[in-house]
Amino acid sequence: MKRWVSLLMVIGLFAIILSACGQKGTQSSDQKSTSEQSLTISVAASLTDVTKALEKAFHEKYPHIDVSFNYGGSGALREQIDKGAPVDVFMSANTKDVDMLKEKGKVQHTYDYAHNKLVLIHRKGSDIQSIDQLGNNDQLAIGEVKSVPAGKYAKTYLEDQNKWSSIEDRIVYAKDVREVLNYVNKGNAKLGFVYQTDLYVGTTPHTGVEKVSDAPLKSPIVYRMGTVTDTEAANAWYDFMKSNTAQRILKDYHFEK
């Protein structure tokens, strides 16, 4: 009888050890799963600086999510997503590119997270103050009209001002607003159209270019984002962008709500 009791005790102890090991293994697996969450965000080039600040604040709340950014013109990014690029969130510099993907069922939740303004810039210290002052060999830099929202806005503005036809043959096209800044900063273009936020490097005024004038449009420039996947990480970023913290950071970087 005592032998049976001892055997049962040994079996019970063995079962407890196995159970504990199983729980430990499950916890390690869960922790590994949590630590390996990743988030890929395709972002308009005009958001390059502010997204670094947004990422830092996001990590304070979600330290287990690894964020990576893919920058470019909104139209080019939309085409990548349309072709199946592995993206979780799309942050566009307009509404059109997000809406085009949503119509195809490739974007789920959307949110208008910021507004911006179009401005005309020249190299700091330049005497050229308007498009009318450009010489026959002088160039005006704008983003590619088909893929860069700022380029489309620039063309719309020039058409509204009845200047497009007279300046079209002197336009140099850039892949994004960062390249427009580079063209003007290096003197390859006398003037360029960028966003108001591009007048700053982070929160510090740009040292190489400066604003000539505002370029008001009939319709506001709206920045729209959309979730491409329905992962926890994508939804966490979506919720974060609606927070007061994110809106404060955007304001610090001269975006408007």
Automatic annotation (TrEMBL):
Binding site for molybdate: 46, 74, 150, 177, 195
Record InterPro entries: ModA (IPR005950), ModA/WtpA (IPR050682)
Record carries keyword Signal: yes
GO biological process, one term: molybdate ion transport
Annotated Pfam families: SBP_bac_11
Gene Ontology molecular function, alphabetical: metal ion binding; molybdate ion binding; tungstate binding
Keywords assigned by UniProt, alphabetized: Metal-binding, Molybdenum, Signal
Domain of life the protein comes from: Bacteria
Gene3D superfamilies reported in the protein's UniProt record: Periplasmic binding protein-like II
Similarity comment text for this entry: Belongs to the bacterial solute-binding protein ModA family.
Name used for this protein in its record: Molybdate ABC transporter substrate-binding protein
